[in-house]
Amino acid sequence: MTEVKLFGSWYSPFSRRVEMALKLKGVEYEYIDEDLSNKSPLLLKYNPIHKKVPVLLHNGKPIAESSVIIEYIDETWEGPSILPKDPYERAMARFWVKFLDEKCSVAMWKAFAIPGEEGEKAKEEAAELLKFLEEEIKGKKFFGGENVGLVDISANFIGYWFGILQEIVGLELLTKEKYPNLCKWIDGYINDNFVKDNLPAKDKMNEVFKALAQPGFSGYKPKV
Amino acid sequence: MATRDVKLLGTWSCPYVNRVQLALKLKSIEYEFIEDNPYNRSEILVKNNPVLKKIPVLIHGNKPVCESLIIVQYIDDAWPIGPSLLPSDAYDRALARFWAAYTDDKWYPLIKMLRQAEGKEEKEAIIAKLAEGLILLEDAFVICGKGKDYFGGENIGYIDIVLGSSLAWLRVTEIVVGVQLLDQTRTPGLAKWAERVISNDVFKDVLPETKKLLELHEKIQAFIKSST
């Protein structure tokens, strides 16, 4: 009898990615929602190095870092493949995830969060980076092809969270005019029956993001 | 596998490139090494890595693979014959990936930062962070190595490649800054592991010599000074 627990946060895209992976594989798990401004002793015990969500606990053994957890889930449980089987396609999928998390999302977050010249520079950088994604999604329903795959799961920040952020500050970065293919992917993504069950409600996200603007809030931020 | 089929774009002094060379060597894969000047990106680099424009880039039968950790995993996947670079157990694989990411995101960048730091306080703060990181890596060595010679157990594995490739610049940084970062008393397991790694034939063949790297470091410093 295997035991699976997930320490997460309902509004963290990294946490939601892991939940998507578990659900795709039909894994039953116990979900523990963490208060990120007051982390539990268990979370700190299982992820002493980064002290972050998500953390997966499988038969008492902890795994941290969403991309590491997702690959572990793909390798451990039967069910639809999350990563492609072909070595080259796998390498490309991993590349796009790294690009999304380390380059694209970082610039996009800065464009949202930082005022003035630095924010403007970040916006320009993000605009350039998004062109690569626009090119990559051309002619495809999902980055994973016909079905949601690793890159789609990992692009949840761009697919959903960022749209909410844009609206809050009136930022025009990821628009239909400039990125028609990417926005088409977004429409398909957030309306997909499986994906939409794994997205936090928009009104609740609005509250979180507004709270983020308050000093002393130590909630979700991508790696900046 | 014909040499022409596998090409590596990189430069001898870059640890990220060295990782790929280590992986190729461990798998006995023949390849053509194309030296790329990191200060003057070539057309072939920009064509094969248009998104990030960085080395290393592995070109396998005209298909480019970028980012050193991704390339090493690709080499393991695409050449299943020969020693496995990643562990066979899924949990051990997760640990290997975790520590590789930790090394790259949190620990290794501190080494260059230390060389570039000005002022005693700044240097001491970075040295303290590096020391903390090494203690974590010492624990990781105990868990992953399970009492054997390498993080990969009896054979060189993924973390050995990722962390081992940092030893050349680590040594140069120790000399330049005048501090011992990796030491027997604080991290005995890791210190012994490092000695084992730098005297291993595969690593000796790939990692740049301390003397050559020091000369390069001095050249870079002189260039920076002359252009400011």
UniProtKB/TrEMBL annotation, chain A:
InterPro entries assigned: Glutathione-S-Trfase_C-like, Glutathione-S-Trfase_C_sf, Glutathione_S-Trfase, Glutathione_S-Trfase_N, GST_C, GST_C_Tau, Omega/Tau-like, Thioredoxin-like_sf
UniProt keywords, alphabetically: Transferase
Upper taxonomic lineage: Eukaryota, Viridiplantae, Streptophyta, Embryophyta, Tracheophyta
SUPFAM superfamilies: GST C-terminal domain-like (SSF47616), Thioredoxin-like (SSF52833)
Entry annotated with the keyword ATP-binding: no
Family, as annotated: Belongs to the GST superfamily.
Listed EC numbers: 2.5.1.18
Segments forming domain GST C-terminal: 86-208
Reactions catalysed: RX + glutathione = an S-substituted glutathione + a halide anion + H(+)
Domain GST N-terminal: residue ranges: 2-81
Leader sequence segment: none
Pfam families: GST_C, GST_N
Taxonomic source organism: Penstemon davidsonii
Record has Transferase as a keyword: yes
Name of this protein: glutathione transferase
TrEMBL record, chain B:
Residue ranges constituting the GST C-terminal domain according to the UniProt record: 89-223
EC number: 2.5.1.18
Organism field: Penstemon davidsonii
Catalytic function, reaction form: RX + glutathione = an S-substituted glutathione + a halide anion + H(+)
SUPFAM superfamilies: GST C-terminal domain-like (SSF47616), Thioredoxin-like (SSF52833)
Stated name of the protein: glutathione transferase
Keyword Transferase in annotation: yes
Top-level class of the enzyme under EC nomenclature: transferase
UniProt KW keywords: Transferase
CDD domains the record matches: GST_C_Tau, GST_N_Tau
A Pfam family annotated for this UniProt entry: GST_N
Boundaries of every GST N-terminal domain copy: 4-83
Superkingdom, natural source: Eukaryota
Gene3D superfamilies: 1.20.1050.10, Glutaredoxin
Family: Belongs to the GST superfamily.
